[in-house]
């Protein structure tokens, strides 16, 4: 029996890598996509040693034609996509009054339009087959506002709205569409945020990290593997009745 197929965007590092590794352990064939071919190749090499079936594909989710080509390649090499995990994302901060248009367009382009592009390329075939799972990695910023991150917050609110809207259409097609909303995670993205705090405030890296840790109710950074575990559950048969939801971690 062929392995089920999962497509994970932004799979080269952080939560995307943890998600790809979790699905491989769960017996999926993994299509790992991202912008860095080197990171994806390293991931594939490491996972293949453990017996996983991994297809690395360099793809910018903002480029819709590139996404369409990537999906076609996945279907040709691995088979129909059973699970789509939209994890690719970027963050940046700036006061609203000095934020430039490039920052705005980049946040919405990668975080929201990228998610849309992948869903448009994958979901119609899921509807036709009468099965599938879509899991969008949003953020706690999809549910509340944060100062100096208007573009990021707007993009993640958009991801959550897109999730809820498509979930209603998907319900009658045997497909579920859900979102996972992590708080601050122990990833390179958070490391970059720490560096920004150090640069702008003069605080130490340790103090900057504590600031971010205190923004999570448990006073700690969330580990990527914790996000991967929730994503894996949403992809499972046990989660067939969960649709249009946002799970905060």
Spell out the key features of this protein.
249 residues; alpha/beta; Rossmann fold; 7-stranded parallel β-sheet
Q: Would you mind describing this structure in some detail?
A:
- The chain has 8 helices and 7 strands; from the N terminus they run E-H-E-H-E-H-E-H-E-H-E-H-H-H-E.
- With 249 residues, the protein is an alpha/beta fold.
- The protein has 2 domains: 205 residues, 3-Layer(aba) Sandwich (Rossmann fold), CATH 3.40.50.720; 36 residues.
- A 7-stranded parallel beta sheet has the order 3-2-1-4-5-6-7, sandwiched between helices.
- Helix 1 packs across helix 8.
- The mean pLDDT is 94.
Q: Ends: how far apart?
A: 34 Å
Mean pLDDT across every amino acid position: 94
Derived structural class: alpha/beta
Q: Ranges with pLDDT <50 over ≥5 residues?
A: none
| Basic shape | globular
Number of domains: 2
Helix content: 40-55%
Radius of gyration: 18 Å
**CATH homologous superfamily of the largest domain?**
NAD(P)-binding Rossmann-like Domain
CATH topology type of the largest domain: Rossmann fold
Query: How much beta, percentage-wise?
Result: 5-15%
Q: Tell me about the biggest sheet?
A: 7 strands, parallel
* CATH architecture level-2 label of the largest domain: 3-Layer(aba) Sandwich
The order of strands across the largest sheet is 3-2-1-4-5-6-7
Helices, by number, come to: 8
Could you give the count of β-strands? 7
